[in-house]
Amino acid sequence: MAKLDIITLPDPKLRLASAPVERVDDELRRFMDDMLETMYEAPGIGLAAIQVGVPRRVVTIDVSGREEGDAKTPLFLINPEIVASTDDRSVYEEGCLSIPDYYAEVERPAGVRVRYLDRDGKQQEMNAEGLLATCIQHEVDHLNGTLFIDYLSRLKREMVIRKFVKAAKSGIKPEFKSRADEKA
């Protein structure tokens, strides 16, 4: 397996809509294994193929515990489609491997039903709630060219984008106030 490079804001590829996968084969499975290794090493709980510069509708997710010894329970979603969502809403503080070190509260449906092809190319449907539902929605958004910052106010979104554009030009990592800084 090989670690892949994660692209970050302001890379315009993050705004591309990803193409459906036509065939599930060994090459795709190797790519998904590389995505999973990249996601774990980052560390993250979800990764869309577009985040490693590949505009294909492929997602890896693992929201299992991060404590040493916890069993990993990865999910591989190929051509995922959210087919239903609950009216109930939940708010999670989201982050993104493509927008490093920036976190914000985002409100989304508390539960979703997702249809996808699994690692073997078999059609599956799954109900998800809580963190898993949020992660699925976040990653499917990536496949559609949407970032979690698009759910923020225009002012906050533009501030984040400006900081990442400036950082890309200067080569210096952008800094954001933490919640502790805001309360102080």
TrEMBL record:
EC number(s) given by UniProt: 3.5.1.88
Catalytic reactions of this protein: N-terminal N-formyl-L-methionyl-[peptide] + H2O = N-terminal L-methionyl-[peptide] + formate
InterPro entries hit by this protein: Peptide_deformylase, Peptide_deformylase_sf
Keywords linked to the UniProt accession: Hydrolase, Iron, Metal-binding, Protein biosynthesis
Cofactors named for this entry: Fe(2+)
UniProt xrefs under Pfam families: Pep_deformylase (PF01327)
Catalytic site: 139
Hydrolase listed as a keyword: yes
Keyword Metal-binding: yes
Family matches, as SUPFAM superfamilies: Peptide deformylase
Physiological role: Removes the formyl group from the N-terminal Met of newly synthesized proteins. Requires at least a dipeptide for an efficient rate of reaction. N-terminal L-methionine is a prerequisite for activity but the enzyme has broad specificity at other positions.
Record NCBIfam families: pept_deformyl (TIGR00079), PRK00150.1-3 (NF001159)
Protein name: Peptide deformylase
Source organism of this protein record: Kaistia soli DSM 19436
Gene: def
